[in-house]
Fold this sequence. Notes:
This protein is of the alpha+beta class. 31% of the residues lie in helices and 30% in strands. The protein has two domains: 7-84, Winged helix-like DNA-binding domain superfamily/Winged helix DNA-binding domain (Arc Repressor Mutant, subunit A, Orthogonal Bundle); 89-250, Chorismate lyase (3-Layer(aba) Sandwich), CATH 3.40.1410.10. Helix 1 (7-33) packs across helix 3 and helix 2 packs across helix 3.
Amino acid sequence: MKVLPSKSSDVALLAPERKQVAWQAVQALLEMLERPEFGPTERIPAERDLAEHLGISRMTLRKALQTLIDRGVLERRGNRGTFVTAPGVERPLNTVARKGIAEVVEQAGARPGSKLLYFEQTQASARVAKLLKIQEGDTLLTIRRLRTVDQKPFCIETSYIPAARAPDLVAADLIEGASLYALLLSRYQIEIESDEGTLSIATMNDQEARLLDVEPGTAALVYRGVIFDRQGQPVEYLVSINHPQRVVFKLADSRVNSLHSDH
């Protein structure tokens, strides 16, 4: 006698396929959101149009949309539709760094936070030594912190500071989320004036993805730069790994100069 599979068996057999379809729908939506027209706060197309465009059922589309809403990539606004989530932090790209990220977050009306991940002394590599104008092998203070906005992680920052510029600075000084730049000013009379760096895209490792609460392999906006004091001397080499949905970098006051007046 032929035995028909039970309903539970059918579900077990179909579940992997359904999961694969849902995963593919999420990836298709993420690829769509990378297009120029879908910047922060932009409304995405209606469900019917999206489902037709992606070639999937409305039910599968809704599950994929809910996944991205749960991740904070999208947000529903009542009857107005579904929108790309506004970033939690808008970081200035071409202005001086004297304020520090905590003040930038506060001025946007949000609550900044900081968790010290580690604080240790290391030796400067040839590359970092050149950037900081010190000798290879000189002692560095290596400080790594997880920065948050309204208790949501938005970036991981690693600071490399010549130990000679901040003698006696210890982990306890930063455990309670104190501002590093405020400490440099009050204790060592070092006033941060400017920065010079690059912005690139890199894939997060598993630890970085876990700290920023994203899927492993997610791409991040990475800032690498040298921070200078008012005398133009390098104080810090900074590597900042930024959450791709919670941070945007703002280009301010980029007026066209006379050299480009003929374009």
